[in-house]
Design a protein that fits this description.
Elements: H1 2-29, E1 36-40, H2 44-55, E2 59-64, E3 80-83, H3 89-95, E4 102-105, H4 110-124, E5 129-132, H5 139-143, E6 148-150, H6 152-167
Parallel strand pairs: 1-2, 1-4, 2-3, 4-5, 5-6
Helix pairs in contact: 1-2, 1-6
Length: 168
């Protein structure tokens, strides 16, 4: 359980670091861009990312198909929620995907994440798209789209190797 919590913290740190670095770069390049971030998927990771962004003063909207998923958000969450399927254009339109400085896609399905990432890039022209990827072999699908990825399997392997090196 301790390793899983550490991996979740590492995934969270990497995603928020990518968002901060990329948003600051884009804001310097385009003064008209805002700090509006859309998070798609309100599981443990999505809720943690949305909470941290909200606590940091960013404008955040989180989307999930399951209305009960929003219960994972902290009581201090100051952003918006949208119950809907982010693979549907009307949901992304309602979310204001064309105005987002960043979109973080952390559903529990790689195919869904790839589909949404492509929609966000192609339809809305988003520059900063970050997606969770469970299967490292699928990274090629993201590389050609210029989409940043976070892979829990790779993070886990790196953390386990690091712990083993300390103990040997």
């Amino acid at each position: 359980m301790e390793i899983i919590e550490k991996i979740n913290r590492n995934s969270f740190a990497i995603i928020t670091g990518l968002i901060d670095r990329n948003i600051m770069k884009r804001l310097k390049e385009k003064k008209e861009k805002n700090d509006y971030v859309i998070v798609i998927g309100c599981g443990r990771l999505g809720a943690s990312v949305a909470d941290a962004l909200s606590d940091g003063g960013r404008s955040v909207l989180i989307i999930d198909k399951d209305n009960d998923a929003f219960k994972k958000l902290s009581s201090s969450y100051g952003g918006l929620t949208l119950n809907g399927d982010a693979t549907e254009l009307h949901v992304l339109n309602e979310a204001g995907a064309d105005k987002a400085a960043a979109v973080v896609i952390v559903t529990n399905n790689d195919n869904t994440n790839i589909l949404i990432a492509q929609l966000i890039k192609d339809r809305y022209g988003a520059d900063n798209v970050i997606a969770r990827l469970y299967e490292p072999e699928r990274a090629y699908a993201y590389e050609g789209l210029n989409i940043s990825t976070v892979c829990p399997a790779r993070l886990s392997a790196n953390e386990i190797n690091s712990l083993l090196q300390k103990g040997l």
